Records
---
Amino acid sequence: MRELIYFVAVTLDGYIAGPQGEYDAFLMEGDHMAPLMARFADTLPTDFAEAQGVSQTRELIDTVLMGWNTYAVGGVPSPYRHLRQIVFSRSRTAHADSLEVTASDPREVARGLKEEEGAGIWLCGGGALAATLAPEVDRLILKRHPVLFGRGIPLFEAHSYLPERFALVENTVFDSGVMFSEFVRVREG
């Protein structure tokens, strides 16, 4: 079965973006960038990866899920055209190759995708979609940056499900102060 992987940059105080969706305070340079581009190349926007000469193999992930605001931040019609892209919106539409906009229930979509053949499914953001999909998340990979936003879009917006437990499987700290922390869901029974 495929995994739903929530892979996201987050501040020390738990925000994935500022109040207006800004993310420019995240460190885009430093010793954490080479490992990011090596292991998580498929999470890079296609145009950026091509400009950097980074190969995108779709081995870790082959599908990306985004809320509309996360999709719109990039300002391009198909930011991850090397992947199957699914954008959730109840009122908007977009047309681009490998991009699907849907008003369907995100949990039902995620469950259906997990049953298909393929690589992992990347939950790119945002906080509201992450809260909706939290019960379906199998792996959580946080790129924790040594910054505080004070307010903004939280890692998970308020949700109403029972506490879920994750186990730490890897934690890498870089000289830049960025930490990659990877967790897997602890399944009962």
Note: The chain has a mean pLDDT of 92.
---
Amino acid sequence: MFASLLLSAAVLAAGPADDAGAVPDGASPAERPNVLLILADDLGVEALGCYGGVSYETPNLDRLAAGGRRFEFCFSNPLCSPSRAELLTGREPLHNGIRRVIYDPKNHREFLDPAREQSVGNLFRDAGYATAAAGKWQLSFLTERDTPAGLGFERSQFWPIQIDGARTSRYAEPSFWGDRPDGTRGGWSVPGGYGPDGYNAFVRGQIDRAQAAGQPFFIYYAMLLPHFPWEPTPGSEDPLKRTASLASSDHGDMKYFPDMVAYMDRLVGRTLDHLERTGALENTVVVFLGDNGCQQGIISERRIDGPHGPRTVTVNGGKGTLTDAGTHVPLIISWPGTIPAGVDDGLVEFSDVLPTLADLCDLPTPRNPINGVSFADRLGVPGMPERPDRDWVHIQDKAQRQVRSRTHMLNERGQFRPVVPPGSKPAPPLSEPLSPELQAERDRLAAALKAVETFDGP
């Protein structure tokens, strides 16, 4: 199992790493590490055991965290399309144009435009990497604007939200869009199949393709799980059934959510095992995140440390809200033998991932100004340039915007409130007059909110 290699990363925590893991300046593609960027769908920190979650089984991700770097305070946008666009471009929704969820082709004409935006896929492809992407796109309607190649992904397979105006199934008897086995591109369905299994097989196949060609790879694995509809997974006592995935009247049964989280974890383990069997794991940077918090109505238990010792709190999923329950997501980064095991308690937002990977892999500077700040120097990898640490993150849903520090939040309406412990109800806005210390914090966050709005480059 891949845990054998992760132990070597844990050993590094006992002493300094040497220069063998650093990427040399001007490195050729063959000298650069592979990158596997995994994004789960609707997964807050409370769902993983490594973050204190006690409601679900996540042994593979827990082992990944134990051998790598776990980030305590990573924040996304509260819904999928804005988070995905920010992750891939390093740019806030205000600047990349994706401020809401893309799901209705009749009313939503937004898409992540390759003519205007440059993605992390473009950077890796132009640096000589084999690039691929799979799972959930939701940055364009693929049957109308098949944009992954323009954004740097040489090969891709995604779940199409609709085909010929009909909603499709992402799980049982799934529909696919992208590179078919026969070399053509378009849509198809797999009667008797299970969507997440198909995308996982595609990802493993792209690892093999890159290795056969002698190229490093960058793979964006945007998992479908554990987003609704909540349905049985393979191996369940209940039969799989085909469900239109965006049917608002039927989100399935929440009783299947634990099995879907467990199956998501199993697919991560399957991919990591494949990396180990092919000899690629030790030279692969694995990044795992959730795109936003768990769906509202999902109730989870989480064990946290408090001033009087550990305690268990109940967390109600907050997807779609600017609360921590909607935006506080897991971030785990592993590079066995190079990144020492540990926990980072600094602030991170999704725009930071692109510049961090660019530093780790010696990629060229993006052509567009990015909002992200690299945290590669916090990973313990030798030779990484020092960057300023964040003291706030920006979160957006349509016109709603918020900046959050470790202690306070300020939104676009001027509401200023304290951050509350996990499982607590949001605090009411603080009333005027504020103490000098609180007024200084509010002023600092107001300046940050304005800075994001007016940003045009560093």
Note: The first strand starts at residue 34 and ends at 40.
